[in-house]
Each structure stands twice: as C-alpha cells, then as structure tokens.
Amino acid sequence: MAAVAPLLETPLTERHRMSGARLIDFSGWQMPVQYTGIVEEHRSVRSAAGLFDLSHMGELWVSGPQAPEALAYALVTDPSRLAVGRAHYSMICAADGGIVDDLIVYRVAQDRFLVVPNAGNATTVASELDARFARFEVTLDDASRRTALIAVQGPLALEVLGPLTDADVASLKYYAMIPGVVARVEAWIARTGYTGEDGFELFLDWDAAASVWDRLLEAGQPSGLVPAGLGARDTLRLEAGMPLYGNDLDRDTDPFEAGLGRVVKLDKPGDFVGRKALEAIAASGPRKLLVGLVVIGRGIARHGYPVFQPAGHDPIGVVTSGTASPTLGQPIAMAYLPPASAEPGTMVEVGIRGGRVEARTATLPFYRRPSSTEKRPT
Amino acid sequence: MDVPEGLRYTEEHEWLRVEGDEAVVGITAYAAAELGDIVFVELPTVGTELSARQTFGVVESVKAVSDLYSPTTGAVTEVNEALSSRPELVNTDPYGEGWMLRIRVADTGDVERLRDAASYCELIGVA
Fold first, then answer.
1. pLDDT in tens, A153-172
2. Measured in whole angstroms, how far is the alpha carbon of residue A312 from the centre of its chain?
3. Residue A213: which domain range?
4. Could you tell me how many CB contacts below 8 A there are between chain A and chain B?
5. A353 touches chain B (CB under 8 A)
6. CATH number, position A40
7. Residue B103: which residues within 8 A CB-CB, separation 6 or more?
8. Residue-averaged pLDDT of chain A
9. Whole-angstrom Cα distance, residue A52 to residue A126?
10. Nearest CB to B62: which of A231, A298, A299?
11. What is the pLDDT of residues A248-303, one digit of tens each?
C-alpha cells in the first residue's frame, strides 16, 4: 500500500477548522470548500465581498538581468513588454503546445517578476522554469511555502481594504500591483482575481497571514464581507467564464482550443517553448473549442459527461466544468466541441446518467459584472 | 441535528414514515446538511416498482451528485413535484415539504429492518 502524504495546511487552516468550515483535500492541501454554504457565499461575493484563503497557490520569484528574456522563452506571453507594476495572464506550454499550467505574471521591478501558478502545478512549474532558465542569467526562488495569499473579492472589496492600508488601492488599475502595508503587515497588493468581480489579492508573509485575515474579517463585517470557500470560488469563476486547470485546461489541450489564442504572442521576438507547435495549430485551426453550455432540459451537466448532436449516436465532445449557476438560476457548463458545433446558439444534448438533456451553446462569460469594461490583459 | 422519533432510517440517510399501507420517503436533515445547497432532485415516475436498496433517483448539490436508495420494496404512488422547481426544500424542511416519494409498501418486513431514531443517531454520531 502506498504511503499517503499528510495534507498540507495553510497558515489559516486552523481558523477555518475552528469556524466550522468544511475542509477538503484540494491538490494535496486541506482547504475550506465552504463555511456556511456555497450559494450564500457566492451571492455575498456578487453583492458585497468575500474573503478567500488562497495560500495553497504557488509563488515563484524570477529575478536577474535576463529575467524578462528568460520568461519570454519559458512562457507563451512576452513579460518583457510588461510595465513595472503591471501583470498579465499567461500560460506555460509543453513543446507540443499542450498547456502545462495557466498563471499570472506580475512585474514588480525591471528585473524581478512574480509568477503565480495553480497549487497543484506549483512544483511542476517550478522545475519546468528551472530547466527552461538553464541558459539565462536568472534566479528562481520558490516562495510558495512561505507566502500566504488572501483575496478580497466583490463590489465592496475596495471599501473593505481601503481603510486598512496605506497604499493607494483606489487608483490601482486592474491587473496592476503595488507594495503596501495592510493591517500592519507588508504585502504585495494586486488588483486581480478569479471571481468576475472587482477585488484584490494580497501576497504576504506566511506567519503574518492570520492577523491580516482576522483584521479584514472584522473590518469588513459592516460591508457584508464573509469568508468564502473553494466551492464558491468554482461557481464564481465558471459564471465568469474562466477556465480551471485540471478541468478545462490540461496537457492534452492547447491554448487555441481553450479559446486563449490571443494570449499566445507568436509575434514576440525569439524562440519560446512550444512555438513551432503553436504556430502550426494557429495556421491549421484548433480541433476542438471550449464553449459555454446552458442546459435547457432538467439536469446538471458535470465534468466528464458526453455531449451529442441532437439525436446523434456518438459523442462529439465532453463537458469539462458544470454547475447550477447561483446568479443565473440555471445549469451552466463548459465543454469542448468540434469547431462546427461551437457556434453560439447551437443545440446539443448532454448525456446525463444514460439519458439525454437538451442544451444550447453560449458565449462566455455567462456573467459580466455590471460596471465592467476591463478585459484581462495578456 | 434533527432526527424525529417515529420515523425509520436507512444507512444511506433516507427516512421513511409509515402512513397506513403507504410510506413517505425523504432524506435526513443530516444528509441534507452534508450535501450542502441542494440544486437538483431527480425522482422516478409514479408507478415505478422499486426494490429495497435500489436507487430511485439522485440529489445534486452545487458540488456533488448523490444517489437515493429506496428504503423499501413497493410501487411509487406519488412524487413531490414541488422539488423540481424548489429543490432547496430538501435543505429547509427535509422531513416536511422536502419529502420525495410515497410508496405502497409491499413488505412491512422491510420497514422493520430499518433503523429507529436512536439507532440512526448512533450511526451519525449524535447524542
């Protein structure tokens, strides 16, 4: 029998446990899936604000005179074009164009970047970067286990965070980052998130996280701030049309299939890992496309369920994420379909427990916040 | 945790209430709380012949899908249609408005083999 590694804990796990949160194993971490209920937490984030413990995410610092070139070689984007203090969404791909992980890259100085991979991929990304950096003058520091990440997300996120920091967070732009002191603790404050709402992500010292968490919860109470778990994070990101690695993205999927072709900078100078394969895919077109699905019949389309043409015999695609949307009040999903069936408004059927349920392809995202005109920069 | 006296319980967390030669079936408050926000309930059609311990439907929360198991053998005489538009009734009133099925009990021995409230409390670890 294989030995089972004990689950990792964040500096806040004990607080979650004490507050009665339900904890689950997520990518080897013991994480809160819900505190009071997924739907209630989801609604709080859409209408007020939610506080998330994301300390399981990876934090990789890339520094050195060749850091911009090294990252441009390792990733599909061109971080050398980022202004200091700005961030973009990126991916690290294999030589065949398959997605190893999706990540956010922040430029904190001319020669210093913060790369944030998914929790389950942090080790893989660190070793991939290390290998890809071999011929560059650059150092990689994996700070994942000493960096906590707390997110404040929702329309009232600014109202909650503003009074607790000396940093000018009100004028901080979407996908920008500044250093600041939050509740007496030094932090990197980024205006990023994974919920489709305005919000901030705070990178801070592992041991200081608990005091900041407590202070935020207390100060945010009048605004309706509640702790929110990974369950709400998943329904929020799905409504916002944001893919989740392991569900909607994986090694067998390339960025063009995932609808993220605009992220891949084929026009950047120099070679990068995956360039040849990605150029070929860009020229020939993807074999499948990630689409939104709205389920019309009775049932919830879930990860792994097959998708058929109406009355078709063989599956034409597969559902990668699905839930009952708390905001829309109907079941939504993401699925990979052949390009010919991916046109929004196409009728399909989802195979649910041996039966067929009608669904219609839809444009992503399912939800866009009322005041939002900002698109995630890449 | 609410475990009413007078009902019978399965190890899969269904409850059963005998009413004459019929029985009303639902899931327990414990099960509803464990599942979280229930967003979908799939039930059989009236007339379906069920065997004890056979799956009769599913209940889905935001995150998970769970099978429902019939506590007894018999034919379905009524299903709770309200759950198709208001599945959350299973969370808010699991022993009342959140009921799922009425079954014509074919064998009262099935019912006697189920747990009583005290035994079910033991199963879920509440005093």
1. 999 999 999 999 999 999 99
2. 34
3. 13-58+146-239
4. 40
5. yes
6. 3.30.1360.120
7. B22, B23, B25, B50, B70, B72, B74, B75, B76, B77
8. 96
9. 24
10. A231
11. 999 999 999 999 999 999 999 999 999 999 999 999 999 999 999 999 999 999 99
